[in-house]
Amino acid sequence: MSASPTDVEEVEAANTAFYEALERGDFDELSALWLSPDDLGVDSRYHDPAGTGVVSCVHPGWPVLTGRGEVLRSFALILANTDYIQFFLTDVRISVTGDTALVTCTENILSGGPAPAGGDEPGPLVGQIVVATNVFRRTPAGWKLWSHHASPVLAGNTGDGAGGGDTDDDASA
Q: Is 105 exposed, middle or buried (0-12, 13-18, 19+ CB in 10 A)?
């Protein structure tokens, strides 16, 4: 079963909404984009799979976070400690099968932290390249994030699949 162009467009819009909510620092919008028990048709009074491990997130350098509460707390911390963030997405690939969608992309990130103590100027801007995988699930309310996994790209990695490691030609004995 192949994905319809509409499915791919809807997933692309959901993926874009995720990054735009991060850029705006809109925690309410960000929260609404993640899968919840209501999206799964589960009565949360008895069982909350989205709160006990169904959703997951890995930020660069962080351990895996599971559960809606833990994932959303992590984004609240990031938003509270980031004065400026902008994402330039490249290499976006979208695959939809049934009610599940996989998005891979490169996040070219420009961010800035709090201003130095006693200063009126913004904090320094830092650039970073991260590769990400976002998994979405179709719900009655549209496509929702099921999992986000982001890993830093090591300096010197050319993106050619070589991984930036030693080859037989340059390995030392």
A: buried
